Structure formats: C-alpha cells, structure tokens
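Two proteins follow. First one:
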Amino acid sequence: SCSPVLAKMAACVGRLLRSSGNLLRNGAHLKCQPFYTAARALCSNTSGSLTTVRPQDEVMRNQLIVFGEYVAECLPKFVQTVQVTSQNELEVLISPEGVVPVLSFLKDHHNAQFKSLADIACVDMPTKPYRFELVYILLSLTYNQRIKVRTYTDEITPIESCYSVFKAADWYEREAWDMYGVYFSNHPDLRRILTDYGFEGHPFRKDFPLSGYVEIRYDSELKRIVQEPVELAQEFRKFDLSSPWESFPAHRGDSKPLMDTMGRGHEAPAEEKPTEEKK
C-alpha cells in the first residue's frame, strides 16, 4: 500500500499525461492543415470560440452605463460625456478644471472606490485647438474595475495637479511634462525625469524632429562628453529612387514592385546585356 501523498502525486501525473496526449493527438490531426487553422483550433475551447477574445457581457456593459450616468448626474459641472468602449471600459470625458473634483469623487465615493492611479497617458494631436489629451487610468480593487478619465489642454494652459489626491501622480505628471510639455500647476516638484539636464524641447511631440537638435559624443581632446548640434552627413541621406523594390509604382513612372498587396510576385526587371561589337 502507498501513502496518500504518493497516491495524489500519481493521480496528478496521470491527468497530466492524459491532457498532453489529447494535445498531441489534436496536433497530429491538424498538421496537414494551414498553420493559422491549426493554431485557431488548438487555442479554442470546447464551444469553438477563441479563448483570447473577451466575450461580450451585456450585463456588465449595462452596469457600466448606469454607473457612468450616475457620475454625470453627481458632477454635471465637470462631466461632458460618458461612453463605454467595445471592450467594456468606462470612459468619463471631463473639462480641464474638473480633474481634481472628479478624481476625488471616484476615489472617495462608496460606490466607486477607485483608490489606485495606474497611469497617466498623454496623446498629441497637433491639428486640434487643444492638442494634448490626458487620460487618467484608475483601478478599483474593491470592485475589480477600471475607469478612464479623459481631459484636454494645450501648450500654455496648465492642468491642476492631482498629487493631492493620488501621490502616485508625482512621477506620472513629471513624465508628461518632460515628454509632451504639459504643465501641471501646484505640483510639488515638476522637473524633467527622463531626459538629461539642459535638454531643450519635448521628444514625444509630433513636431519634434526624429534626429533631435543636439547629439552627444565623447571628445578625446577635452577628455569629456560634449553636446553639439546635430550634423547629418550627406551619405546617410542618399536615396535610390529608381530601385526595383519601390512599393509605390504609381508615383515612380513605369517602375513596378516585385510584390503586390496580395502577396503575388512579379518578374524582376530584366538586366540589360551589353551589346557585342560587330567585327
């Protein structure tokens, strides 16, 4: 007779072997099919639906809509609209002056309790009058829910810092100031956090050049690191516009790509053979 521990271990090993055997049999059955079909079948559950796709939960969606309407009724001065995304995520769009009141309400209200600030994201859209959009992502551990609070601003209009509500906003707001140039008023220590001392500009803005304005190198004569204006050599900016690999044939005359959008290949242009001299 074996001990109960060994019996449990033997049962677990048996279940593992049975499950691996089923997986191998399924893989052998699907090996003659295309790769995407085999992967889709192996990753699907017994009902045939993909496990990686979140199913639509109409009950949860209706609850989020009701809660969003409740927030809009409680804060009509600041909430402009409420919407639910296709992935059942509640978004509250507010005016810039309502950042602190709305975040305080969502943190302290008994039916919300979003006590964790997960992140502060920023989006730059230069064509809009208010080019920057701030997204505050909150998490409620009590109700296991997330909510996004979105607002807007421009280059010169400051946003009230939410450091008094969430201490985690300290570095998030510093990052938004460093990368995008969004100014937060009443922040205890608003300074750059990722770029170097004396850096000019904000790298994540759409109008910031990819090459930057200065380059850093080590000077062997001065025996130290120096910063100089960017100088791009002409060799690095040379383009061959007559290449047969051109992907936009309509803009390059009679040139033809070697591969079209459907994956079908074309014949490469024939190379010109040198003509033999007549004797």
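Second one, unrelated to the first:
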Amino acid sequence: MDRGDEEVAKLLLQLCEMGDITRNVVAKGMLQVRKNSLSESKVLFKGEASKQSIHKYSVIRRQSSTENSQPPSLPDSAIQNISDGEGPPLQSVADSILSLPGPSKDCDLPYLGYEEEQKTVLETLLDLLIELKFPQYLVTLVLSMLQETDYKQQFMEAFCSRYAKIANLLTHRFEPDEDQKLCNRLVHASVQLFSNENLTFKMVQNNNLLSIIVSALSDLISRTLIKVDHDTEDNVNSKSLFVVNCNHDIISHHRYWPVVSDFHNLLSHSKIATHFLGEAALIRRWM
C-alpha cells in the first residue's frame, strides 16, 4: 500500500467519523464485491454536488467540534444531492468505495491448509491488514464501522476464517518492540469482536472458532519445543522428551498472549464455556 492508498484509507476513516449516514455508506461499500483496484479507481465520490455537500458537512462538523457540541446531522440538501439528480445514488457511492488494492502476489504468508477466495472489499482489507502486520490506521478504520450490524457479522466471519493466518504473524521476526505493538493491536480488535456472546457463539457453532483458536495456540507452543534426553536410573529405558524452550521469542516476548486472551474471552461466555466442556476431543487437544 503506497502513500496515496494510505490517504484513501484515512479519508474513509474521516467519513466514518462524520456521523451515522456517512459511516453506513462506507460500511455498505466495504461489503460490496470488489471490482477495481485503487490504481483503476481514484475517485471516491463522483459528481461535484455530492463532493461539495460532503465537504460542507465536514466544515460544519469541525466548527461544531470547536464549540464542544454534537455535530449536526447531514443537511437535507446533502442527502438529496447524494440520492437524487445532482449526485449519484447511495448505492453508487457505496460501489465507488471498491478501491482498496489486494495483497501483493508474492506475499509469503501461509494459509495453513486452506486458500481464502477474496470476495468483498472488507476481505481484501483484512488480507492487507495481515500482509502489513496490522498498521494502526487500518485497524482503526475497520473497527470504526462495528456499529453497523451487517458489517460486524461479516467482519467476524472474515476474521475467523483468517485467524490461523493472523496467529501465524506472531511467529515472524520483528524489530524491537514491534511484536508487542502487534499483540496490542490484535487484542484491541478481537476484544471488540468477541464481546457479543450471541454473535460469538454463532461463530463457534458455524465457523468452529473454538477449534481454530485451540489449534492456533497449539501451533504456537509447538514451535517452542526442544528435544531433551531423559535417562532413567538404570540407563536402559532412556526416553526423549519435548519441553518448552523459555528462551524462544514466542515465550520470552509473550507473543502467545493474544491467542490466550481470545481463548479466555470466549470462555467468559457461559454458552461457549458449556459448549467447550461438552467437546472431549477439544479438551484433550487443549490439554
């Protein structure tokens, strides 16, 4: 993602912060099937009338913020410009948001046994998040629309389907302190996603979320194991044991804690805890 693409992402965040109407438009755009790359579609809103209306609202919002008051609702004239005549309809505005590029073709992140087909702008954005190791401006953007019900549900589904890839980021090499920044951003996102018991339980039932998280944690810890020889007193029945290497970066830098935190958050919901205790195979894998 180049400088121009980053500016587009920040523009979308500013639109989300303007109010319910613009946030809803951007969220709908995120759920549309991706058609164009950023280089093919540089214009977010078509039509001078609609652009002027959004700009006017932005100015009014900044003025109201300085007075410590609530920003006014989008003027009726602005809504008319966007939905009728002078500007494109709301659906066209949403469609024009399909502008974020996909991850580079030479991205070396493994899919850990499956390949995810890109379908929407949101899914493309999540793949970018993974490739770029969760930059703060993109994390803020995707979380800013969680108030939209349809967006949150599809975001959770896309997040769960990519959880193995996300957890795999914790095994990469990092500059000093960068791994802790990544951990903080992962937890910041997942805490908001897994706070709703009913929606999270739905992910457990339909997307095997508990199994995915337990497997991700098992994979992380297995990377820290080292083989040691254990000799019995008679040196006849010597055995090879595997123990955790506490000097491994995953352990010493506490990189495992985002996955452990997610596991604890899931089990804090009574429905999910009951479901977990009824899965003998899952308990054995966890232990």
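SUMMARY FIELD: Strands lie at 225-230, 239-244. The first strand starts at residue 225 and ends at 230.
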